[in-house]
Design brief:
Keywords: Signal. This is GST C-terminal domain-containing protein. It comes from Cyclotella atomus. Pfam families: GST_C_2, GST_N_2. The protein contains 12 helices and 6 strands. The chain is mainly alpha-helical. The protein folds into 2 domains: 131 residues, Glutaredoxin (3-Layer(aba) Sandwich), CATH 3.40.30; 163 residues, Glutathione S-transferase Yfyf (Class Pi), Chain A, domain 2 (Up-down Bundle), CATH 1.20.1050. It has a 4-stranded mixed sheet with strand order 2-1-5-6. It has a two-stranded antiparallel sheet with strand order 3-4. Helix 3 links the parallel strand 1 and strand 2. Bound molecules: glutathione. The site of glutathione (GSH) has 16 residues, from helix 3 and helix 5.
Length: 391
């Protein structure tokens, strides 16, 4: 008996090491988040006692790096993005990939827009999340059996090509993460079959700086040193009050939480309008990652957030400055191809029956059409022309 145990010990230790090496690798900042995360599976669980929405930190925070000996070196066709057309955070990775000309370097799978039960055979498990297209699947209703029918696949949304996962939760589970949240975007390593990162702010930095050897726009730096301070400064108020601000309005579960969020959002919207009437981009004269981050929220504002998240104190189409700012970005090479307004609307309006029981999709003002009209932003600054972003 003892001898058998003795023989088995190295095997057990090897298996344990295997499990550890498959687990999310968390940086210093995310250790605390990881310990707090067990009960939080989706955004709708992230509520404070006062009814306010508190977004949880992403758990997978590895870096692709050119440095020698890096675990994740920037090889062509080694990495993959799992994204949703609807998700603003995923959208910014798609825009950065397009603007940096990395379409042939990093592959993409786009999940279906409407959340579904991720363990439909387990009556105790009510989690709903992103699912992959199922070309053989039947149309379905929303997660409380109403609305729709929603098709089980669309052209352009494909099944999981690597792990055979049915949904994003299964992707996380297959790489050893059973805690959630099961979010997109995911930057996935096809070689080591693991997640590199699920934090969009860091993924876009990697796409900007680490793939220049295979990028078709290597000279374009979306986070230039001279603007880093300005970028940090604008991100510090735009993110909480606008990008996350719309969610703070929409997911608020008390009047008090909503009132605070809408006040912050409205003030930030006005501040933005003022800023962009004087300078071409949010951090100065050059287009940066901070503009991509802002654009994805402004793009969804009039069609979704104004109605669904009750952000109806302002609208982008009522602000010539912000509308023209959005037009310029929409018209940059490759950006319009990343916009799928139908899926953006289908996701938001049909994925949270708490907010829209019957999943009715409002007609909306046709915001995307407005973005195809000429913009006037070149009257604001000349220096930006040097960046060759005007298409
Ligand atoms: N920190 C993440 C946030 C990503 C995120 O919240 N994604 C949402 C979609 S917009 C998601 O996948 N949510 C899944 C859920 O709430 O269960 C990032 O910026 O990359």
């Amino acid at each position: 008996m003892l001898t058998t145990l003795h023989l088995l010990l190295p095997l057990i230790s090897l298996m344990l090491r295997q499990v550890v090496s498959l687990s999310p690798i968390r940086n210093k900042n995310s250790v605390q988040a990881a310990t707090e995360m067990t009960a939080v599976r989706t955004a709708l669980d992230e509520m404070g006692a006062d009814g306010s929405f508190n977004r949880k930190e992403a758990a997978w925070r590895n870096w692709i790096s050119n440095e020698e000996g890096a675990r994740f070196p920037p090889e062509k066709d080694r990495y993959h993005l799992y994204v949703a057309n609807a998700c603003p955070w995923a959208h910014r990775t798609l825009i950065t990939r397009a603007i940096k000309g990395l379409q042939d370097v990093i592959s993409v799978t786009i999940v279906m827009p409407v959340w579904q039960r991720t363990k439909p055979d387990d009556p105790e498990d009510h989690h709903c999340g992103w699912t992959f297209a199922d070309p053989e699947g039947k149309p379905f209703a929303n997660s409380i059996g109403l609305g729709g029918p929603f098709p089980a696949s669309y052209p352009g949304n494909e099944p999981d090509p690597f792990l055979g996962a049915k949904n994003i939760r299964e992707v996380y589970e297959k790489v050893g993460d059973k805690d959630g949240k099961y979010t997109v975007p995911i930057l996935f390593d096809k070689k080591l079959k693991t997640i590199v990162s699920n934090e969009s702010s860091e993924i876009v930095q990697m796409l900007n700086s680490e793939f220049n050897e295979s990028s078709s726009a290597p000279e374009l730096n979306l986070a230039p040193d001279e603007l880093k301070e300005a970028m940090d400064e604008v991100d510090a108020w735009i993110y909480p009050n606008i990008n996350n601000g719309v969610y703070r309005c929409g997911f608020a579960k008390s009047q008090q939480a909503y009132d605070g969020a809408i006040e912050d959002l409205t003030a930030a919207f006005d501040r933005l309008e003022e800023l962009l009437s004087k300078q071409r981009y949010v951090a100065g004269d050059l287009f940066t990652l901070s503009d991509i981050r802002l654009f994805v929220t402004l793009l969804r504002f009039d069609e979704v957030y104004v109605v669904y998240f009750k952000t109806n104190t302002r609208a982008v189409m009522n602000s010539p400055t912000l509308l023209n700012y959005c037009r310029e970005i929409y018209q940059m090479p490759g950006v319009a191809d990343t916009v799928n307004m139908a899926q953006i609307k289908e996701h938001y309006y049909c994925s949270h029956p708490d907010l829209n029981k019957f999943s009715i999709i409002p007609k909306g003002p046709g915001f995307e059409k407005l973005l195809k009209e000429p913009h006037d932003r070149d009257t604001i600054s000349q220096q930006a022309k040097k960046q060759k972003l005007d298409g």
